[in-house]
Amino acid sequence: MVLTMRSKDVCQDMEVTESIEANCLPWEDAFALFQTKVGSDTINSHPDVPKLAEVVASECCGLPLALITIGRAMAGTKTPEERRKKIEMLKNYPAKFQGMENHLFSRLAFSYDSLPDEAIKSCFLYCSLFPEDYENSHRKIIQLRIGEGFLDEYDNIQEARNQGE
């Protein structure tokens, strides 16, 4: 049986017989992953962007989830000024906990705070309730959110579905 844990303490508590630690990605792999998530259109949109991308990727310290999450957030930016603003937010965002998990938490919190409105933030939080790699379709999540009452302010089911999209 193979289990994945974010904490060595959990493995020790479970008396795991063999433990393999997954390290952070080396710089080249981390930057390649980040570039893939940002997209070549964004990377090539301005001469300053590749250097800014390097700065952001280095802030993620080789953590794949952080690279993917921040890369996707940066993909939505249109101008170098927007990117610089997000980079400054990322650098100055206070980590609230210690260690690697804290470092990752601050990156995810930054990504959450960068979402454009409360409805999308609510959806983000709702989706975080599902286990990692949980197979759930976009349509199913919309149906669940309607069932939970998150989209009650709409007059009919079609408006609620449209908002969910």
UniProtKB/TrEMBL annotation:
Q: Does the keyword Lipoprotein apply?
A: no
Protein keywords = Plant defense
Name the InterPro entries on file. Answer: Apaf_helical, Disease_R_plants, P-loop_NTPase, WH-like_DNA-bd_sf
- UniProt entry tagged with the keyword Phosphoprotein: no
GO biological process terms, alphabetically, are: defense response
GO MF: ADP binding
The record ties this protein, via PANTHER family, to: DISEASE RESISTANCE PROTEIN RFL1-RELATED, DISEASE RESISTANCE PROTEIN RP
What is the protein's given name?
Answer: Putative disease resistance protein
Native organism is: Vitis vinifera
